[in-house]
Write a structure and sequence with these properties.
35% of the residues lie in helices and 25% in strands. The chain contains twelve helices and 24 strands. The structure holds zinc ion. The site of zinc ion has 5 residues, from loops.
C-alpha cells in the first residue's frame, strides 16, 4: 500500500515536471521564432533574391539584391525570385514571367515559384519582374539582363528585359528593389562636370585587398579604376564582379605584367586581348582602358594599343606605395598633392595600400572631390582618343 502510493506521488511529480519543462521549452521556442523577424524589420532593407537554372549546370545559389548572376559557357532555362526582409504589414510579393525560346511568355509566377522549364533545353529570351499589393506603391523593382555577353540597360516594374524573338538568349540577371523613386546603387552617383573630381587607380590586382578598397568606395558611393593583370582575374572572379557591380572601371594591365615596349605588335595585342577576354568572361564587360606595366609606352606599344582602340593611361600622382609599404606616407602623398583632374597611382596587392585607400577615400569626399573612373574623368574633361597617352586631366 505505502509502496504503491509512493510510486503514484512520484508519477504525479514526473508529470508536473514534464509539463513545466514543456511550457518553458515552448516559451523559448516562441521567442526564437520572433527574433529573426524583429531583426529583419529594424536592420535590413528589403531586397530581391533570385536564382536561375542553367543548361547542363543546374540551379545556381540564390543571389542577393543587385548582384550580377550568370554562368559562363551556358544559358538559363528556368528562373525564380523572392524577397528578403519584406517588412511586416506590407501586402503582395514579387511576381515575374519569362519568355522561353520557341514557346513565348509563360504567364505569371511569384515568390519562389519556378518560371520556365526546369530541366529543359530551350533558353530564356526575356524576363519581366514586378511587385504587387502595396509593395508596388512603396518600392520600385529594377531588372537588368545580360544578352550575348553585354549588360543591357535597366528596366523597371514589369517592363520587358531582353531581346525577344530575334534568336538571342539571356546570359545573366540583375534585380534590384529600391524605395519608390530611388535608383539601383550604381546609378545614384552621376558625375557633375562642374565639381572637382579625382580618378584613383589601383594596379597589379585583382587581389584579396581589393575588398577593402571596394568597401571604402561603396560606403561613399565612389568609384575607381582597377588595372588588372589578366592571369590573376580567374582566381579572384568574385572581386572582379564586385568591381563591375559597383561601377568601377575594368582596366587592362597586360596578361603577365609584360613590358609592352619590348614586344611585337602581335604580342602586345595578344597580351591585352587575353586579359580583356578574362575580364569579359567573369563580368560580361570588356576592359575599357589600358595601363602599360612600368608606364613603358615605347617601341610598338602605342601603335599596337591605338590599333585596338585603346588610349594608354599613365598617372600624375605616383604614391610609390609599392616601395614604401607605409600607409601614412601614401596617405600624405595623395592628400598633400591632389588637385582636380588628377589620376592617382596606387597598387592593389599590398595591405598597407588598401589601408591607405580606406583613409584617402573618405577624406577626398570630405574635401568635395567626386571619386570617378578614368573614363568618367576623361569624358568630363574633353575625352580621349585611341593611341594617345593621358596622365592627368587638370
Ligand atoms: Zn604594374
Amino acid at each position: 500500500m505505502h509502496h504503491h502510493r509512493r510510486i503514484s506521488i512520484a508519477r504525479i511529480l514526473m508529470a508536473v515536471l514534464c509539463t513545466l519543462a514543456l511550457t518553458l521549452g515552448m516559451a523559448n521556442w516562441a521567442a526564437d521564432l520572433k527574433r529573426p523577424i524583429q531583426a529583419a524589420e529594424t536592420q535590413q532593407a528589403m531586397g530581391a533574391i533570385y536564382a536561375s537554372e542553367y543548361y547542363g549546370r543546374g540551379w545556381t545559389e540564390w543571389v542577393p539584391d543587385n548582384k550580377p548572376l550568370f554562368v559562363n559557357g551556358s544559358y538559363p532555362t528556368a528562373f525564380k525570385a523572392g524577397l528578403s526582409n519584406q517588412p511586416a504589414g506590407t501586402t503582395g510579393t514579387i511576381q515575374y514571367e519569362v519568355n522561353v525560346s520557341g514557346s513565348g511568355w509563360t504567364g505569371t509566377y511569384e515568390n519562389g515559384q519556378i518560371a520556365g522549364v526546369e530541366g529543359g533545353e530551350m533558353p530564356l529570351e526575356g524576363l519581366r519582374v514586378w511587385l504587387n499589393g502595396n509593395l508596388a506603391d512603396l518600392y520600385d523593382v529594377y531588372t537588368r539582363v545580360m544578352v550575348e555577353g553585354q549588360w543591357m540597360d535597366w528596366v523597371m516594374n514589369g517592363a520587358e528585359a531582353g531581346q525577344v524573338g530575334v534568336g538571342k538568349h539571356l546570359d545573366g540577371f540583375r534585380i534590384a528593389v529600391v524605395n519608390k523613386g530611388e535608383q539601383p546603387a550604381e546609378q545614384v552617383a552621376a558625375v557633375d562636370p562642374s565639381r572637382p573630381m579625382v580618378a584613383l587607380t589601383f594596379d597589379d590586382g585583382p587581389s584579396q585587398y581589393d575588398a577593402v578598397i571596394l568597401s571604402a568606395l561603396e560606403s561613399v558611393g565612389g568609384r575607381a579604376t582597377f588595372f588588372m593583370v589578366g592571369n590573376l582575374v580567374g582566381r579572384h572572379a568574385d572581386i572582379v564582379q564586385r568591381m563591375a557591380a559597383d561601377g568601377c572601371e575594368l582596366g587592362n594591365h597586360s596578361w603577365n605584367h609584360d613590358n609592352l615596349s619590348r614586344l611585337s605588335v602581335e604580342a602586345i595585342q595578344s597580351s591585352v586581348q587575353q586579359t580583356n577576354n578574362a575580364v569579359q568572361s567573369v563580368t560580361g564587360s570588356p576592359t575599357t582602358v589600358v595601363r602599360p606595366p612600368y608606364g613603358a609606352t615605347g617601341g610598338n606599344c602605342m601603335a599596337a594599343l591605338g590599333a585596338m582602340g585603346y588610349p594608354a593611361i599613365l598617372w600624375h600622382i605616383d604614391t610609390l606605395d609599392w616601395k614604401t609599404r607605409n600607409a601614412d606616407q601614401t596617405v600624405n602623398t595623395v592628400l598633400s598633392q591632389v588637385r582636380d583632374g588628377d589620376i592617382v597611382l596606387m597598387h592593389s596587392i599590398y595591405a598597407q595600400s588598401a589601408d591607405a585607400a580606406a583613409r584617402i577615400i573618405p577624406e577626398l569626399v570630405n574635401r568635395g572631390y567626386q571619386l570617378v573612373t578614368v573614363s568618367e574623368l576623361a569624358n568630363a574633361r574633353g575625352g580621349m582618343v585611341p593611341g594617345a597617352k593621358y596622365g592627368s586631366f587638370r
